[in-house]
Amino acid sequence: MKKLIAFFCAFLCCNMIFAQSFEVPKDYKLVAKEDYAPYEQDIVKCVDWLINTPIDQEQEKRKEANTFLIAWVSGSPTVHIVIDTDKIVNFLDGKNHDLLVVFIGGWVKKTIETNNYQNTVALAKSDTDGMISGNLAGIEAVIEFYNKNKKVLGNNKNIENYIKLQKQGKLKGFIAKNINRK
Fold first, then answer.
1. 74, 68 in Cβ contact below 8 A?
2. Which residue among 39, 65, 133, 167 is least crowded, i.e. fewest CB within 10 A of its CB?
């Protein structure tokens, strides 16, 4: 029992230290293609911070982090995202845009960490592998964020459905079946 309590306390301390370690870059410049790559690790840290920091804390920093992430994604020459709000990103209720930002962040983080920039090519050629892995990473990030912030966010039946699919090992199959293949 003491070991369990000690582990839990260590886990909480690590999360608090980790959540505080990210600082949104000041005066970042995202104009030319070569401006984006130097910020990739900042983007990964930003996504982790957004997921791990309670939604009702550090709201000004959250706005800055959201803006940084969206600005980076919007102009990135290497990472492209397709959002299907009908079948995949069906959990938006108009009240909380943080869920969409976390979805985008999960996709971007996965792309950077796996160095799989082929999703750019995949999207252009309608190859579904990049679409599946990106959507899966985005949904898994949303699930993690939702579970940590459910008291503030309230119940969302579509995310709850994703949680059930994930527990059953069927989430990837659901995404593969439902992605928009234009």
1. no
2. 167
Contact 47, 18 (CB under 8 A): no
Give the position of tokens 């020459």: 77
DSSP 15-78: HHHHHHS--PPSS----SGGGTGGGHHHHHHHHHHHHHS-TTSSHHHHHHHHHHHHHHHHH-SS
The dihedral built from the CA positions of residue 117, 123, 129 and 135, taken in this order, carries a sign that is positive
Contact (CB, 8 A) for 70 and 101: yes
Distance of alpha carbon 159 from alpha carbon 135, whole angstroms: 14
What Å distances lie between residue 135 and 66, 72, 179, CA to CA? Answer: 19, 18, 8
Going residue by residue through the chain (182 aa), what tens digit of pLDDT does each one get? 444 454 444 544 444 444 458 999 999 999 999 999 999 999 999 999 999 999 999 999 999 999 999 999 999 999 988 888 888 999 987 777 999 999 999 999 999 998 876 654 445 445 577 788 999 999 999 999 999 999 999 999 999 999 999 999 999 999 999 986 55
